[in-house]
């Protein structure tokens, strides 16, 4: 009897918690048309050291706040999965998500893509920017100059620096194309080392900690200030097919009114000198254009190729 009572009380408590949550909801979700924030929580995923990234991104708070007329809080997640979970649990309103992370967020919680970043194209050899804006980029496999690794098949049995497994440039694209070339990252004696940020991947190759690394094209620019001869010491041996650029994604219940306000704010910020300087230093973004979910069908194909 005591066990029955205990189970009943626990069940009633759970039901009550659910009812209270449903009735109370998010205090900021004041509109029947969807969530309308009183404070906007924006989160970035680390493409370079988290401390550096947060310092660069922090000034975006004031620019966004000025555009939206509400307080804005900017933070950096520990990895891609953390921000996906945070958006699912409604702890984060806006996420700067690379394409694979966006697809996972959309599948998990119906997160909505609003914008796609534009970057200048990259000219090889040399890794310098062109003056042409593009909504896609490539991943590249880099090695130390003089390495015996010349193509994907040479990666068998080697030690490779990667990003999180949901990173398009730092994992999915190179792994999928390795598989197509007959190289299985899980079965061919390859050891992977996950590092935080593409700058760290470049330095891992430079310092001899790994034999190769997967990075976005051309991540060597992220360390060129501190290592001026990085382009001579670390070289690419493979470039992937194009990857859709990063997204600005919002939680699933964001109202259409706020979808548009956020879109307009980021587009306007990207066109201002101060705003452009921030987004360029954070992710090498040059601006933003409106996007749609179907743009990322290619991402779903590659994710399936690597078993995601």
Features:
308 residues, alpha/beta, D-Maltodextrin-Binding Protein, domain 2, 7-stranded mixed β-sheet, 5-stranded mixed β-sheet, 14 strands, 23% strand, PhnD, Phosphate/phosphite/phosphonate ABC transporter, periplasmic binding family protein, signal
Give structural notes.
40% of the residues lie in helices and 23% in strands. The chain contains eleven helices and 14 strands. The chain folds into two domains: 40-120 and 245-306, 3-Layer(aba) Sandwich (D-Maltodextrin-Binding Protein, domain 2), CATH 3.40.190.10; 137-242, D-Maltodextrin-Binding Protein, domain 2. It is globular and about 60 Å long. The protein is an alpha/beta fold and 308 residues long. The longest helix is centred in the N-terminal third of the chain and has 23 residues, at 2-24. Helix 3 (60-68) crosses helix 9 (256-271) and helix 9 crosses helix 10. Strand 8, helix 6 and strand 9 form a beta-alpha-beta unit. The model is unreliable at 1-27 (pLDDT under 50). The strands form three sheets. Strands 1, 2, 3, 4, 5, 13 and 14 form a seven-stranded mixed sheet that branches. It has a five-stranded mixed sheet with strand order 9-8-10-7-11. Belongs to the phosphate/phosphite/phosphonate binding protein family. It comes from Listeria grayi FSL F6-1183. It holds the Pfam family Phosphonate-bd. Keywords: Signal. This is Phosphate/phosphite/phosphonate ABC transporter, periplasmic binding family protein.
